[in-house]
């Protein structure tokens, strides 16, 4: 079953769990004494918002990549490079979720309004 923004429940839960894992790892790293960063309420609120919006951000990223490489289905790259790119994209989608997800939501609602006229 798809939600209004195009995500099905399985995809949302999977990406949400990845977001929770990223949240926990970053909170653990920040709370270590050698990190030099204090875990304050602003960081916790920001991390929580990023975690909640990460599934939408990741969906927007995957839609954009799918649009850009629609017919180019074969890529020959090394597995290490592919994993590194995937890891970087996951972290960027999580860190920028507070920016990407609202843009995606606005775009989807505007697109739905235009197509339903």
Secondary structure class reads mainly alpha
Q: Mean pLDDT, as a whole number?
A: 85
How many β-strand runs?
A: 0
What portion of residues belong to β-strands? Answer: under 5%
Shape: globular
End-to-end C-alpha gap: 24 Å
Structure annotation, total helices: 4
Order of helices and strands: HHHH
Rg measurement, Å = 17 Å
User: What is the total number of structural domains?
Assistant: 1
What oligomeric assembly is this protein in?
single chain
Secondary structure: helix percent? over 70%
* Biggest sheet character: none
Taking pLDDT < 50 over at least 5 consecutive residues as the criterion, the unreliable ranges are none
What can you see in these coordinates?
With 117 residues, the protein is mainly α. The chain has one domain (9-116). Helix content is 74%, strand content 0%. It has four helices and no strands. α1 (9-31) crosses α2 (41-68). The longest helix is centred in the middle third of the chain and has 28 residues, at 41-68. The chain is globular and about 50 Å long. The protein starts with 8 loop residues before the first helix and ends with a helix. The model has no long low-confidence stretch (mean pLDDT 85). Keywords: Membrane, Transmembrane, Transmembrane helix.
């Amino acid at each position: 079953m798809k939600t209004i923004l195009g995500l099905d429940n399985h995809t949302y839960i999977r990406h949400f769990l990845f977001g929770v894992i990223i949240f926990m790892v970053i909170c653990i790293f920040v709370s270590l004494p050698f990190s030099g960063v204090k875990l304050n309420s602003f960081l916790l609120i920001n991390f929580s918002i990023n975690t909640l919006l990460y599934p939408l951000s990741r969906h927007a990223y995957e839609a954009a990549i799918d649009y850009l490489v629609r017919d180019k289905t074969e890529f020959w790259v090394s597995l290490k490079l592919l994993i590194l790119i995937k890891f970087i994209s996951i972290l960027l989608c999580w860190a920028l979720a507070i920016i990407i997800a609202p843009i995606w939501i606005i775009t989807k609602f505007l697109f739905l309004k235009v197509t339903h006229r």
